[in-house]
Amino acid sequence: MKGKRKGTITSKWLKTNALLSHSEIRQYIPMTQRLTSYNLSSMLAKYEMVYIKPERGTYGNGVIRAEVLKQGVNKYQYQIEMKKRTFKDYNSFFQSLKKVTKKRSYLVQMGIHLLKYQKRRFDVRVMVQLNPKVVWETTGIIGRVAHPGKIVTNYHSGGQLVNIEKLLSSHLSLNEQKSVIGKMSRLGVTIAKQLRQKYPDYRQVGVDVGLDVTMKPWIIEVNTNPDPYIFKKLADKSVFRKVMRYRRLKGPIRILKKKK
Ligand SMILES: Nc1ncnc2c1ncn2[C@@H]1O[C@H](COP(=O)(O)OP(=O)(O)O)[C@@H](O)[C@H]1O
Ligand SMILES: [Mg+2]
């Protein structure tokens, strides 16, 4: 089936569109378009920094960060893995990008200036699962800190898994941390419910949330086959145990509609 891989929705485009139709979630989704020369140039003019990523990608593979430079002769730059390239004009920049993306389908998304921890960018993975009462519950939240030279935070791209309170502690007071964590946790549940309207056949989602300096949570990506093992890294072992326990739950996949 198009966009699906054994109960997994692989297309970031289809997932984004499923979320955009929800009026509350909408505001947390960075502007996303299909990659074309026109779309990239207009998004760079508007946002100055964007992420370009495969429509169906994982582990941060193939993800590119592109930006307009304010100083020097070279005006455009992109980075993939550890490699940065700069260009004088838009055409040579785009032609070079095309060689990287080849014929594959790519998206361009407004870039979030992610918070940093020890000069490294980080984002947050929010795990949301159906609990034994068949109600969506946020079961785990963990921070992912990018490898120093990289633009992605994925564990499989050299990222590091760190307790979220530790990452937020240099930015926020204890009460503020609680409030931001609570907000991400509720947003995760809202997303899971919304996605399920369109795709009823799964019982867990892992949301990649990016925080900017204003602490606004941005939805970078929603995974329908999230890795549970990342939570093994937390000192609090009860989180991992719960994630695994809920993962093993079977039962009715479609929630029975409550009678009015
Ligand atoms: N719009 C964006 N702004 C800032 N960082 C981003 C953006 N999109 C992706 N990233 C970074 O790249 C990583 C991988 O991108 P993601 O969309 O989650 O694809 P993948 O399926 O490969 O994990 C994210 O976890 C984040 O660190
Ligand atoms: Mg991701």
From TrEMBL:
Species of origin: Paenibacillus antarcticus
Classification via Pfam families: ATPgrasp_YheCD
The name this protein goes by in its record: Endospore coat-associated protein
InterPro entries recorded: YheC/D
Gene3D superfamilies hit by this protein: ATP-grasp fold, B domain
